[in-house]
């Protein structure tokens, strides 16, 4: 959307468009499709009693399978008197409305809505009657069940009273067959027509229905004969008129009920600072059966009025991508849940192929609509391959990726069978963002261990580029929430809740009924609280709102069992300690609960952020009551003034509840002020603006810095400037720059040099009084003295900057601070010995201060590289946190040295000494710095900053790396021979 005209161009974050890729668009499509007759034909408008147009309104209907449940307008699916299919409700009716990566941020009208819970007949018989009481249908209503290989129409005639009639009914075409679950014959479900009072189940907290089976690609339906892949789904007939009916059906664009609401709100809140914002995502349904004309119309409508670009995917890819790979593989692993069933369908190759296909569809759509200057922002774990897919086709594009869920430790992530492909997909971005520091640290360590790349706290260093890593904790739109709190309906609910629970303390909680939200642990902790503090009996109530999830799981039954037990133990005729609402509530009710709460209890077992805590803080502006927060929630790292708990320690949680209820007003006020300060500072607007601005900055740095933009050094341009300079400083690396890096450490230590021509060239350069030449090497002092000892006035830097011999002097100067603790050497040597024994061919070089482990001669170079990364992580985690050291990755080696010494520090010392010698005059007007590996990068950075002279004049600085690769240097040369040829040409100028 175009920015406000009041904003000047200088206020815009970017002059180009911002393409925001998210799996589910903020909009979806509502089709009006006629219902069917018994024979499967579509009912005419005259015979349809649903509405005046003869159509049933079906939102987000999946046209590829025509499996949506057709319901007359105004009919509630929760009404027990209506016939409903016994099979799984259609996953294609907005199947991804539960794709909730908003981390707790609620939408303005759907309270972070999840899809309707997948209810079975028994659940519906026990469900309360909907407020919308439907009229009795004047004709039979037909419901269409979802299936992967066919379609069926379930009709509800009069109840079958005997076995013969039942057999006859089962033989009818289209009649539902007996279902089976995991190979076991199942008893047919009870009739939905049975009144609730006649149901044999009286438990108000019914156990969860069996987890619904998932649609599978047809080629995989017979892989596991012992498992009934279709469950109770009857076979559906192929429909020859599917495309036709959707081509003729009327449709409208509606706001989606789900998706990443936090992202939607955050990006929309800064659209005035964007030249144009465009959403890229799916419509929440498969679209392979939609005709081209309908697709074109939908695409035009979304682009024109909603600034959105739809991504069209087919049925199998849509199902395999989300329900199989994302939900069965990625989501558990990223939340520290390892798969326990090796025969799971999610591990089949097909699910990965579907994931790749959907990511490819996103990349193709983005590339097709990309314009020069656009900024691409890819979001969340559904699209982790998209950055690299785009990078392959748009090398210069500005690409950012943000992960809204946790990133696991390397020990967990390495269990993913496609771990390398996922990481490589993410490394196509210029900037990868995470919610917390721990998630970013896990990502860096995982890339280092699995891909054997160089990592630093700033990001990942690749061969031809660099990937920055940033921490951007998401927030909420505080202004919007404050306005919604003023709604009269919120005040009404606050009044009613205070009246109903007068004299009681309220603990409020609202979570998805999922295994990572820790609802069961919360109930057990509350039970422990009532056991430890019986004085609170009759004085406290826990209101737990349990939202529906996209999948059935055993947590629902487990939580219901605990709730039933606690209420049966501590309830009486007038008091019930737990109010368990397994349903969604309105946004006004939600804000009312947070306002009247005496305590908010969040016990996530693993969570990206969980912004319910932020919303609770704002709603407590009057009471300022405390917050109890799990240490495993992402927000805990920012909300330090809360009461921290380990959700697995029920006694600790119980004690925190008691502490919060007994907390005095002054302490409440202090804690709340600290919480509010963070919430109001780190808002959704700040998060989105910070990420986009950082992405633009990082992309510019990468474009200026790395290989494809580093030109070849042209000596015809450099030589005239060298010749006219009055005083020149030459900083030359040795191994890999002046001499090929092919020798073992023992040869380097002895100082043997095979290139006499190289030594003569250096000697010629030093003879010119205008030249100040330094050899910047990682070799020992003894080695450099044996090679260059015969050259007078040559400056030497040994052991990577630990020792320096200034030009014209014969004494080495120690650059390590006096009194530095060198006890780390013993511990590092022990680790190096451990890896040397397990890496045949590797060796240890022990210098005066640094210690180097070489694996250049290892029998298996790939294994040596992997061992080097393991060793680097081991040293940094075990020794680096105690002693001020760092591990520097070189060419086929790993060097450990003090943190305060490097070639850059040595260069700074050299330059400062030259300034003192010249008594304030400009010491040099030409600088040449040449190196070949990562140990030279800091030296390049320092030299690039010497462009301006002491008197304000511009100094000529040439930084050059050997070989075409990513570097801080501004030029490159092909190899060692090119370096020597260039130095010889400079020597000839004299």
Automatic annotation (TrEMBL):
Q: Which intervals of the chain are annotated as region Disordered?
A: 36-68, 95-138, 165-234
Where does the signal peptide begin and end? none
InterPro entries cross-referenced by the UniProt entry: Glyco_trans_20, HAD-like_sf, HAD-SF_hydro_IIB, HAD_sf, Trehalose_PPase
Alphabetized UniProt keyword annotations: Cytoplasm, Phosphoprotein
Query: Which Pfam families does the annotation name?
Result: Glyco_transf_20 (PF00982), Trehalose_PPase (PF02358)
GO annotation, cellular component aspect: alpha,alpha-trehalose-phosphate synthase complex (UDP-forming); cytosol
Location comes to: Cytoplasm
Q: Which PANTHER family match?
A: TREHALOSE SYNTHASE COMPLEX REGULATORY SUBUNIT TPS3-RELATED (PTHR10788:SF15), TREHALOSE-6-PHOSPHATE SYNTHASE (PTHR10788)
- Family the entry assigns: In the N-terminal section; belongs to the glycosyltransferase 20 family. In the C-terminal section; belongs to the trehalose phosphatase family.
Main location per UniProt? cytoplasm
User: Which residues fall in a compositionally biased region of kind Polar residues?
Assistant: 45-68
Name the source's superkingdom: Eukaryota
Name the UniProt record assigns to this protein? Trehalose 6-phosphate synthase complex regulatory subunit
- Report the record's Gene Ontology biological process terms: trehalose biosynthetic process
Which species does the entry assign this protein to? Entomortierella parvispora
NCBIfam families per the UniProt record, alphabetical: HAD-SF-IIB, T6PP
The molecular function terms in GO held by this entry are:
alpha,alpha-trehalose-phosphate synthase (UDP-forming) activity; enzyme regulator activity; trehalose-phosphatase activity
């Amino acid at each position: 959307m175009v920015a406000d005209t009041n904003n000047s161009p200088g206020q815009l974050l970017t002059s180009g468009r911002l393409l925001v890729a998210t799996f589910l668009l903020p909009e979806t499509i509502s089709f009006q499709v006629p219902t069917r007759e018994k024979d499967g034909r579509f009912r005419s408008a005259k015979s349809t009693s649903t509405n005046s147009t003869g159509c049933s309104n079906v939102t987000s209907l999946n046209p590829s399978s025509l499996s949506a449940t057709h319901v007359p307008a105004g009919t509630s699916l929760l009404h027990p008197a209506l016939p409903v299919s016994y099979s799984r409700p259609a996953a294609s009716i907005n199947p991804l409305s539960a794709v909730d990566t908003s981390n707790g941020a609620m939408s303005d009208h759907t309270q972070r809505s999840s899809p309707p819970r997948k209810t079975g007949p028994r659940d519906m018989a026990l469900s309360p009657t909907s407020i919308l009481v439907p009229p009795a249908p004047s004709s039979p209503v037909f419901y269409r069940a979802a299936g992967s290989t066919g379609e069926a129409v379930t009709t509800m005639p009069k109840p079958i009273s005997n076995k013969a009639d039942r057999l006859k009914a089962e033989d009818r075409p289209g009649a539902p067959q007996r279902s089976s679950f995991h190979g076991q014959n199942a008893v047919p479900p009870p009739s939905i027509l049975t009144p609730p009072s006649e149901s044999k189940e009286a438990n108000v907290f019914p156990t969860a229905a069996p987890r619904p089976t998932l649609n599978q690609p047809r080629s995989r339906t017979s892989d596991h004969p012992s498992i009934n892949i279709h469950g109770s789904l009857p076979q559906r007939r192929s429909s020859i008129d599917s495309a036709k009916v959707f081509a003729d059906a009327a449709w409208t664009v509606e706001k989606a009920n789900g998706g990443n609401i936090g992202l939607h709100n955050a990006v929309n809140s800064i659209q005035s600072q964007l030249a144009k914002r465009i959403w890229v995502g799916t419509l929440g349904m498969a679209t392979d059966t939609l005709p081209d004309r309908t697709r074109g119309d939908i695409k035009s409508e979304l682009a024109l009025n909603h600034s959105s670009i739809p991504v069209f995917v087919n049925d199998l890819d849509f199902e395999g991508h989300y329900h199989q790979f994302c939900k069965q593989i990625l989501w558990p692993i990223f939340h520290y849940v390892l798969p326990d069933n090796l025969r799971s369908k999610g591990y089949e190759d097909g699910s990965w192929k579907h994931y790749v296909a959907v990511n490819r569809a996103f990349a193709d759509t983005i590339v097709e609509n990309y314009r020069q200057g656009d900024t691409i922002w890819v979001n969340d774990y559904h699209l982790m391959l998209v950055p690299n897919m785009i990078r392959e086709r748009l090398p210069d594009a500005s690409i950012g990726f943000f992960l809204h869920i946790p990133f696991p430790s390397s020990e967990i992530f390495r269990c993913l069978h496609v771990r390398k492909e996922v990481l490589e997909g993410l490394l196509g971005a210029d900037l990868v963002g995470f919610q917390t520091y721990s998630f970013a640290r896990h990502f860096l360590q995982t890339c280092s261990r699995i891909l054997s790349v160089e990592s630093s706290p700033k990001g990942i260093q690749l061969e031809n580029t660099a990937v920055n890593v940033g921490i951007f904790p998401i927030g909420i739109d505080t202004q919007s929430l404050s306005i919604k709190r003023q709604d009269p309906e919120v005040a009404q609910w606050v009044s009613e809740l205070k009246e109903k629970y007068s004299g009681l303390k309220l603990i409020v909680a609202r979570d998805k009924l999922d295994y990572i939200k820790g609802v069961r642990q919360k109930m057990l902790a509350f039970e422990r609280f009532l056991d430890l503090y019986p004085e609170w009996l009759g004085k406290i109530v826990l209101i737990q709102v349990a939202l529906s999830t996209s999948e059935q799981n055993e947590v629902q039954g487990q939580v219901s069992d605990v709730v039933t037990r606690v209420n049966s133990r501590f309830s009486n005729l007038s008091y019930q300690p737990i109010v368990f609402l397994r349903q969604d509530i309105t946004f006004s009710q939600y804000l009312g609960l947070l306002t009247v709460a005496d305590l908010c209890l969040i016990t996530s077992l693993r969570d990206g952020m969980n912004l319910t805590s932020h919303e609770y803080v704002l709603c407590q502006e009057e009471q300022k009551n405390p917050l109890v927060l799990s240490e495993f929630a992402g927000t805990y790292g920012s909300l330090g003034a809360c009461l921290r708990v380990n959700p697995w320690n029920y006694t600790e949680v119980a004690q925190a509840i008691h502490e919060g209820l007994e907390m005095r007003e002054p302490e409440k006020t202090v804690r709340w002020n600290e919480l509010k300060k963070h919430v109001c500072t780190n808002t959704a607007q700040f998060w989105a603006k910070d990420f986009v601005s950082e992405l633009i900055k990082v992309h510019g740095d990468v474009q200026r810095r790395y290989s494809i933009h580093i030109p070849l050094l042209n000596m015809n341009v450099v030589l005239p400037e060298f010749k006219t300079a009055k005083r020149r400083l030459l900083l030359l690396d040795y191994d890999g720059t002046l001499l090929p890096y092919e020798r073992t450490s023992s040869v380097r230590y002895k100082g043997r040099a095979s290139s006499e021509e190289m030594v003569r060239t250096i000697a010629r350069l030093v003879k010119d009084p205008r030249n100040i030449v330094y050899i910047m090497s990682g070799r020992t002092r003894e080695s450099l003295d044996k090679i260059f000892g015969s050259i007078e006035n040559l400056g030497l830097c040994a052991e990577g900057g630990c020792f320096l011999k200034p030009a014209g002097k014969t004494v080495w100067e120690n650059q390590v601070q006096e009194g530095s603790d060198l006890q780390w050497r013993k511990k590092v040597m022990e680790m190096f010995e451990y890896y040397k024994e397990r890496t045949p061919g590797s060796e240890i070089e022990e210098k005066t201060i640094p210690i180097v482990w070489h694996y250049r001669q290892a029998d298996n170079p790939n294994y040596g590289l992997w061992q080097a990364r393991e060793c680097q992580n081991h040293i940094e985690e075990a020794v680096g946190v105690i002693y001020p050291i760092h591990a520097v990755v070189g060419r086929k080696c790993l060097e450990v040295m003090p943190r305060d010494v490097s070639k850059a520090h040595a260069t700074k010392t050299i330059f400062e000494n030259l300034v003192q010698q010249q008594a304030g005059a400009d010491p040099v007007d030409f600088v040449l710095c040449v190196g070949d590996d990562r140990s030279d990068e800091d030296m390049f950075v320092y030299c690039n900053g010497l462009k301006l002279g002491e008197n304000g004049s511009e100094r000529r600085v040439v930084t050059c790396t050997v070989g075409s690769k990513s570097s801080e240097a501004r030029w490159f040369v092909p190899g060692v021979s090119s370096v020597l040829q260039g130095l010889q040409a400079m020597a000839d100028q004299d």
